[in-house]
Amino acid sequence: MYQSIKTFAEQFAYTPKIENKNNLKKFKRFVLIGMGGSGFPGKLLKTWKPEIPLVIHQNYGLPSLAESELKQSLIICCSHSGSTEEVLDGFDAARAKKLPLAVIATSGALLERARKYNMPHVVIPQTGAQPRMATGLMTQALVALMGDTASLKELRALVHALKPASYEKTGAQLAQTLSNHVPVIYASEQNGVIALNWKIKFNETGKSPAFWHVLPELNHNEMTGFDHTPSTRTLSQNFHFVFLEDITDHSRIHTRMRVTATLYKKRGFPCTVVRLKKSSRIHTIFAATILADWTTYHLAKIYGVDPQNVPMVEVFKKLIKR
Predict the structure, then answer these.
(1) Rounded to whole angstroms, how far apart are CA atoms 286 and 148?
(2) Where are the domains of the chain?
(3) What crossing angle do the helices spanning 135-145 and 40-48 adopt, rounded to 10°?
(4) Cross-strand partners of 272
(5) What is the number of alpha carbons within 13 Å of residue 60 lying toward its C-beta?
(6) What is the pLDDT of residue 128?
(7) Is 309 helix (H, G, I), strand (E, B) or coil?
(8) CB neighbours of 199 closer than 8 A, spacing ≥ 6?
(9) CA dihedral of residues 234, 200, 316, 318 (deg, nearest 10)
(10) What SS3 class is residue 271?
(11) DSSP symbol at 208
(12) pLDDT at 232 over 90
């Protein structure tokens, strides 16, 4: 895990190769079917470029779109392992309807099906890391299948722009601050996916419960849950609030973050502000991702847990296996 974080930027030296490219037509609309870390590249892409006509589906079957819209979209099935049952189910549903299909995987049944039916696909490298640590590889594969050469060029520039090692010290300090607390990550709506990613990293890497929400919506509901009385104080006594502050956020969001933190502190809750790096949008997103990786890696070390593997997920898969 340590080396995966430290060398993360090297993923952007990767050039995706599209197999069966002659069978890949140009599309203006896209659907990504992917769970967990394999679905995150789509969310990241929508955060980076919200205007991209991409629907992200994280369930069995296909998204609830009109048949005509589905037929005009490229259905991209992404599973790092190639064995995710929801993605395989979506693949089969799309093929049954004779919808345009493409695949991203390292191996497994999904890749076998793509090859069997001569469908466009990208085989991403096997790094030995968990899917959440292959975001750079899968994002580039997704963008390549979408034919977005401009975005691919911007992503490749990150191989030199990102400096993962430079965030480790801050991440280690933040881990110390957050140890023995349940993190609650807050961000603006435009950075909601970044907050979600932090929450996921606390879950999977730090083996810690964690939660997230966005402003201004949380000011209309969630924060009232922390306006405790003596009888409810014990329900939330271990929460620690992390505010992801972005200079590009609306000025009123900055005000809301400051006032929310003040109200929480008056009620005895610890609050920490993390300022997102001021840079290009895609650099800001991945820099925040790396900081989350370092923070949760060092938190795992503090707790004495394995930062890489997710044994509960593996046990769950075995228990639901057909």
Answers:
(1) 19
(2) 2-161, 164-303
(3) 70
(4) 242
(5) 2
(6) 81
(7) coil
(8) 183, 185, 210, 211, 212
(9) -160
(10) strand
(11) -
(12) no
Q: What is the pLDDT of residues 273-298, one digit of tens each?
A: 999 988 899 999 999 999 999 999 99
Instruction: Of 47, 121, 44, 37, give the one whose Cα is nearest residue 77.
Output: 121
Instruction: Go through 233-268 and write b for each residue having 16 or more CB atoms within 10 A of its CB, e for each that does not.
Output: eeeeeebbbbbbbbeebeeebbebbeebbeebeeee
Residues 6+ apart with CB under 8 A from 41: 32, 34, 78, 135, 138, 139, 141, 142
Tell me the residue type at 232: T
| 197, amino acid identity | N
- Residue pair 106/79 in contact by the 8 Å Cβ criterion: no
The separation between CA 250 and the C-alpha centre of its own chain, rounded to angstroms, equals 23
- Please choose, from the candidates 49, 53, 52, the residue with its C-alpha nearest in 3D space to the C-alpha of residue 70: 53
Residue 52, pLDDT > 90, answer: yes
Residue 160 identity = H
**Residue 322: per-residue pLDDT:** 78
What are residue 302's phi and psi, to 5 degrees?
-65, -40
Are 2-161 and 164-303 in the same CATH fold?
yes
In CATH, the architecture of 164-303 is 3-Layer(aba) Sandwich (3.40)
**CATH classification of 2-161 is 3.40.640.10, yes or no?**
no
Contact 76, 144 (CB under 8 A): no
Give me 133's structure tokens.
């640590």
Tens digits of residue pLDDT in 139-169 = 999 999 999 999 999 999 999 999 999 999 9
Beta bridge partners, 76, equal 32, 102
Query: For residue 219, how many other CB atoms are within 10 A of its CB?
Result: 16
Across the range 230-251, mean pLDDT stands at 93
The 29-33 sheet, strands edge to edge: 18-19, 121-123, 101-105, 73-79, 29-33, 54-57
**How much is the average pLDDT of 229-254?**
93
Please report the pLDDT score of residue 126 as a whole number: 87
Q: Strands 239-245 and 121-123, how do they pair? A: unpaired
